[in-house]
Amino acid sequence: MTDQDYNSGGGAGRESGDFERSLVDRLLDEELDQLSPVEREALIEALRRRPKLAATHGKLQRLLEPLDQWSAPSPPTYLIDKILDRIVAADVNAPVVRESTLLHISQMEAEDHADYSRGSSFTFRDLLAVAAVLAFFALLIVPGISEARSRAQQVACASNLGSIGRGVHAYSQMNRGQLPQGRMISGGRWLKGGSVRIPFTSNGENRYVLLRFGYIANPKVFVCPSDRNAQSLEIANPQAMQDFPDPRNCSYDSLNMGGPLPRMDDAANLPYMADANPLFEGGQFNDAVSVSANSGNHAGGRGQNVWRLGGQVAWTVTPNVGYDGDNIWQIQGVLKYDGTEVQSSPRDAFLVP
Questions:
Q1: Strands 313-316 and 252-255
Q2: Could you give the residue ranges of the DSSP H alpha helices within the chain?
Q3: Which pLDDT tens digit goes with each residue over 104-156?
Q4: Burial 203-218 (b: 16+ CB within 10 A, else e)
Q5: Which residues, at least 6 apart from 289, have a Cβ–Cβ distance to it below 8 Å?
Q6: How many CB atoms lie within 10 A of CB 13?
Q7: What is the dihedral of CA 175, 178, 181, 187, to 10 degrees?
Q8: What is the C-alpha separation between 145 and 64, in angstroms, rounded?
Q9: Which of the chain's termini has less CB crowding within 10 Å, N or C?
């Protein structure tokens, strides 16, 4: 899809500045969840190609950051009815006033209306009516804002994985079709827990290679914007390190490089990287988590973005997206992990920290 395809309202003669403003407007539309799937895909592509637009997107996300810290509870379904009942009760329990008194009050209000000298005031019933209106709008607007924020983070996360994927492709082209690979110890373990007699070799080194050798310049792309525990790596010289110093510097897990590996040109549909595997959060295996669970990066385990070796990024609501419905979180048939397990086939997508 070309820039003109994306900017459906412009023509060949549109000024560059107008086009950039149109893209910024699309960011706002995404925040309000007003984009179609085709427009959303085009926006992701535009974010990849335009660093200034990506920077603007980042500023918009930081502006809306407080929404991440506020978890709005779902209002009870009976809230509006309850407010209306209060209004009716207030009306029924209103004090009885004699007709002569009402006539006198009516005459006074007519005089006040003529010269506006006494102003106006809200009654308790008016305040209840305003409260009912505010509650009604809260029911409609607050969930919509939270959902729009989540969708925007989802798009930014997909953009990050796309950037990492381009680094993987660049590395592969320079290394005869091989995948990024750091120091690997045969028979080592990829989880820090377990037997100390088995040497630890971090699978994260294989991702860090992209930073270390300049295939990716910005370490922030390794942080999912909806991962509240993440911390972007701040280092002036990434070449001086072998791995991310803190697991929170990378929100994504990737193919276990200790097992049989495919070549880039042989496994276009193989998932290579995705939002963090929920089975190994915190650097250890958690057998209380279901293998069908989604990543914890996105609120409520809504789903995960998955990048395939062919270059596609897709949002999924199930981890069963490998070859023939393979679960990308586990090795088929293996239920317990100590960090020494590896996939048995190059077609098996086993994504680990």
A1: unpaired
A2: 3-6, 16-31, 37-49, 51-63, 66-69, 79-92, 99-115, 124-174, 204-212
A3: 555 655 555 555 444 555 566 667 677 777 766 666 665 556 677 788 888 89
A4: bbbbbbbbbbbebbee
A5: 278, 279, 281
A6: 6
A7: -140
A8: 10
A9: N
| 304-308 and 351-352 beta bridge pairing | unpaired
Q: Count of alpha carbons within 13 Å of 264, Cβ hemisphere only? A: 19
Tokens coding 122 = 């809200």
Structure tokens at 149: 């924020």
- Angle, vertex CA 352, rays to CA 302 and CA 41, nearest 5: 45
In angstroms, the CA 312 to CA 161 distance is 9
**pLDDT of the residue at 277:** 96
pLDDT digit string, tens, across residues 75-102: 565 555 665 566 556 555 555 545 555 4
Token pair in block for residue 319 = 């981890």
Cβ–Cβ < 8 Å for 259, 348: yes
Predicted pLDDT of residue 16: 55
Determine the Cα–Cα distance for residues 296 and 226; give it in Å rounded to an integer: 9
Dmax of the chain from CA atoms? 99
Q: Could you give the 3-state DSSP secondary structure of residue 83?
A: helix
